[in-house]
Amino acid sequence: MGYGQGRPEKSALEGQFVPQKVQGLEEEISRYLQNHISSALFRIAEKEERLRLESRIIPTVSLCPACRPSGSWLGLHSPKKKIRRSGLWQVNKLGKTPSLPPI
Q: Using alpha carbons only, what angle is made at residue 10 by residues 12 and 15, rounded to the nearest 5 degrees?
């Protein structure tokens, strides 16, 4: 026994998941995001209001010409056309008309 939670080691799983590699990758991604991505967070206490804003923000961002992903974005390889076209991993609410002013 040696692989994972007391399961016998399987050659097909070898090298697939190494916690140390995952931790290092998570740290690398976190550093990149902290140094290259800006964001703003704000609290919206009521769930109904959060859902209302979400239903307006998603289509607005998906149609924003300045909000396009890079040419190396992994979503460009998605089997879902909506993801490839919108530049968002989110597919719900993409077909709605935005109700916020353009960015």
A: 55
Distance CA 49, CA 79 (A): 32
Query: Using an 8 Å Cβ cutoff, are 103 and 67 in contact?
Result: yes
Burial class (CB in 10 A: 0-12, 13-18, 19+), 86: buried
- What digits encode the pLDDT tens for the residues 70-103? 999 989 999 999 888 888 888 877 767 766 555 5
Q: What sign results for the dihedral spanned by CA atoms 72, 70, 36, 53?
A: negative
Question: pLDDT digits over 52-73, tens only?
Answer: 888 888 888 888 888 888 999 9
CA distance 80 to 70: 18
Give me the sign of the Cα torsion angle 80, 72, 20, 23.
negative
Q: pTM surpassing 0.70?
A: no
Residue 19: burial class (beta carbons within 10 Å; 0-12, 13-18, 19+): exposed
